[in-house]
Amino acid sequence: METINYWINVRQLPEFPEDCHLVQADKQCSTAIRWLSLEDGKKSLIDYFGDVSSDLLPKDSSLHFSFALISHTPRLGSDRLLLHSCTTDKCNNRTSLLKAFQSLILEEKLSTLNNLFHNGSFSFTDGSSCLNYTNTTHLDCPPMATDLSYCSSCLLLSIESPSEICARCPAFYDMPNNIVDRQVYFFPDNRTRLGDKISLRCTTKACNSLETWERIHQLSTLEYKF
């Protein structure tokens, strides 16, 4: 892994080391760029490896894909991830990563949503204001808290497609508060995209509205030039 103390752009992708060692992968070869906002500033991480963690694999789909993720918290700002997966020997080289990097269109102004997040330490007491609506049976959609005193934030998910919405004040959900993220898979072989998924955990009154979902789409762009 290589660490760079600023956010790189497509003209700054470094050369891969000549002494890269080979690993035996079961299913795929992978490369990734992660852009991080940290306490001590912004960093870029560039890595090349074998199989991808199962929680980042698209369900029942090709293993030749590019995955893009943007996330935002009011405390640190935005992080980004480009993960490229391919299935031929030594395909996770700089040329392959650069092509995926050049194809990705990623723009966001998610800091505009900071008014949805309560700064400081406090107990969330507006659980009754959270939108309680779902039109999906997806496993990622948790049940509504029966006792709203156990609800720590409002939740909004769009799962698999824009028509599947889950809005809740859940009793428990494995995701930190005060965060919004959006992720998409792109498949170069058939020029399709999958799983445009939005996740929001917010801590102000009625913050998980469908109007908020529309704003997240308007304030973020994840596209791919096939």
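The record above closes out task 2.4. Task 2.5 opens with a second protein, given below.
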Amino acid sequence: MAAPAPPPPNPVPIAYQANTSAAVPDWLNKGDNAWQMVSATLVGLQSVPGLVILYGSVVKKKWAVNSAFMALYAFAAVVLCWVTWAYRMSFGDKLLPFWGKASPALGQKFLIKQAVLPETTHHYKNHTVETPTATPFYPMASMVWFQCVFAAITLILLAGSVLGRMNFRAWMMFVPLWLTFSYTVGAFSLWGGGFLFHWGVMDYSGGYVIHLSSGIAGLTTAYWCERDEFGSVVFSGAAILESQRESERTIN
């Protein structure tokens, strides 16, 4: 009697296999997932309370609360918009070469499955794979939150250019609109499987998606907003901040 065929090999390396509980999937690595969450937390702390305190302390006393709440509101609003529609527009299935399909990222089945980037597999005309997908050893929930804090800090960096210039009600409308029609375009094009992603353009630390987009948007917004005696300081300060961050990115 022939011996039974051996089981198929596990595609996950032995060092990464869970083997701790039947409830833990084979692909989940707790170390990778923990570091992903720690990294997201560190970025989130730069925004809240980091930039909230900074913005409330660099302006005149009469603008302190308004400036601090601009940063706090931006973070909170981005979180809601991100899980409702913006994550899928940035990292979901392809709608256009520079945009993903808008849909919620809140379902349990979606959040607990293994992370996959990009979600849409692109093929050449001869049906061969153009760019292979990446499957890190942590769930989609970690990826959604990790990318959320980067989207939030992008809007908060932009806020530094309009402190003392923009009405808070206008800022409340500006945040979801800019996130939807600007940030998601850059994120999908470079990170989420868009045309720049498949051209081989690399953006490891957000130099284009985060710093360049927030810097240019802040410069443009500050130019068109009403000027005041504090405006020139904020205007030049935003430019210095973006230049410093770009220098740090180049060094790293």
